[in-house]
Amino acid sequence: MATISSTPMNALLAQGKPRSRRAVRVQEWFIMAALAGCGIFSLATTVTIIYALSIETFHFFQMEDVSLGEFFGTFTWSPLLGAEKHFGIWPLINDTLLVAGVAMVVALPLGLITAIWLSEYAHPVLRAILKPILEVLAGIPTVVFGFFALTFITPNLLRWEWWRSASGEPMNPLGFGTYNAMSAGIAVGIMCLPIVTSLTEDALRAVPRSLREGAYGLGATRFEVSVKVVTPAALSGIIAAFLLAIARAVGETMIVALAAGNTPKMTLNPAEEVQTMTGYMVMIFLGDASNFGPEYLSSYAVAAMLFLMTFLLTVIGHRIRVKYRQVYE
Amino acid sequence: MNQRPQAYSSRRKRRILDRSFVIVCVAAASMSIVALTVLIGAILYQGMGHLDWAFLTGSPSRSAEKAGMLPAMVGSIYACVICASVAIPLGIGTAILLEEYRPKNRWLAKAHQFIQLNITNLAGVPSVVYGILGLTAFVSFFGVSSSVNEPAWEFGVSHYDEFFDMTGDYVSVPLSKRSSPTVELREGLQGYWGPQREMVTLKPVEDPARWKQVKQQFDEAIAALTVQPDAPGYEQAHAAAARPFAGYVRASAQPIRTSEKAHWYVCIPFGRGVLAGGMTLMLVVLPIIIISSQESLRAVPNSLRHGTLALGCTRWQMVWKMTLPSAIPGIMTGSILAMSRAIGEAAPILIIAGIVYITFTPEHLMDDFTAMPLQIFDWAGRPQTAFHHVAASGIIVLLAVLLSFNALAVIIRQKTQKPLG
Fold it and tell me: Whose C-alpha in A84, A295, A298, B334 is 20 to 30 A from the C-alpha of B315?
């Protein structure tokens, strides 16, 4: 690659005889059009997503045994039971939020504290060790986390070896099943940890030095500076990071498809088998449901709900992020 | 400050709090190291036993011992190459549009901003939704044809109606298109026959006695062959002896519809093939490539742009000769990381291709395929523990590929990292 300082002059001189202005202008115009085409492609992607989801969702609600009132007003989701089909979306949403909730219990505190440590405490050497580890963790495919949840976390939860009963028998006090929300949630949490950490750290690092120096000048300890000064100052950025992480957890597919199970139910017990929205979509697209039956089309309605939820979380997250950027830069 | 003053909390107490928070921090920070170590350890422990050359070159099998992942690896390579060749130019183009071509016109500036907002939102769309988008846009092309198995347009394919003739071979009668009506058997119909694809004329035989008579002659001709059935050259000798009897079919024979696809076979809609899978992955990674390319372009100092423009360059000359070369290391790093995301992405491919039992590598762009994460999902979802070990071996292969991608990105970043401006 040419060195930067000499590029423009050399390159222009190397171009040979100057082309006519007209030719250059025509070329510029074509390039502009091509670039605008790239931009329009991304818009078209969004439009197509919305079109694809809404048209099939519309078809779904057109079917005779489905209604909008049932969809939002009832609490049973059993689309595969031959005669007695029920399409009430709430169990799926409940289970999605349950798994995301477990994930956030794991990811948010750990991610926040890790980010505070990275930004305020860590020695550069330790930082240089931890950052690549987080990058590797962020790069691990979700199907690997799913496998990990199914073959490592679940068996350990089932065994519960560290709380052995008096007779030495392995206990299972909460009644964990082979598939449960807890195991999937923990795996989703580990998956979200790098996102929370890096976004939160960005927010913390954006807090101006003067704030920290002022606090130290008043005699604050490091703990007081990081927790009582820097963290509140970066709060909007941290909240944005949390929202984006929740959006990721809600949209996560492979982990819940492998580890959370296939039984949608209204429950808050993470030890039970559940089914999230994404898990339901995977089940339908993998199974041999007929291509036009209500159960097949219902997956589009579920996808539309999922899209709406993640879209809202992302939009709010970015709004907050942009706002805080304006404050501190 | 409406909080109570801190003065009365003793200095000792504050110091203890400070110290203990450091411990909490280190504990939390080391949790991610612990998680990664346990994850890798559990997978290596389960998967190392099965990982060998036969696994890398074998095909999926009903028995866990024989299962391999060659078709999945080749499928991933196909999908990734398709994805990269579309997503990288498109992503860089969009990034250039957003960073280098900021319009002055008020309405265009609004549109520009909207595209930017749109890309941030696209980056947050769950990949499974992209799978549904791919299903609508690529697999069925918005429902252009009534069935995925019946493409609306296709190129590089020949369709045949095949008749089973007396010699035990097929006579393939070429058709003009997939939807052609079934060929009516009649005297003088021509078709390809035998290993040499010779043109023969079909001779429908109605009279059973006549059929018997010709069949007997054919049997005698075959019996008269001097070459042993296992010896080399038998095929040719058999074909030569059978040649005079080619095309004799019973008048009641019904043809079978077959087709022969070239490796450049293209059809629209794409169907559940590797092209549709690759294009869907392209949609998933496009926002990532755009955002990382934008960041690299933004890192190029403005003074360089101004200098180039002051020398009389047009905007595109500035981008092509100046901004892009300076930003290309960052763009490449971002693109490689995006590709590693594409390789590991399972959900959209799962929606597009489903879990199919595939023991071959794709022969053309529309061929059914499977990918590494999908194959791992399939193995991991089975109840038998033996298959879990196979899945773990598959994960080791996948992680090895991803780690080498990450290492490549790090190397590029370090080789080319130099301060600009």
Answer: B334
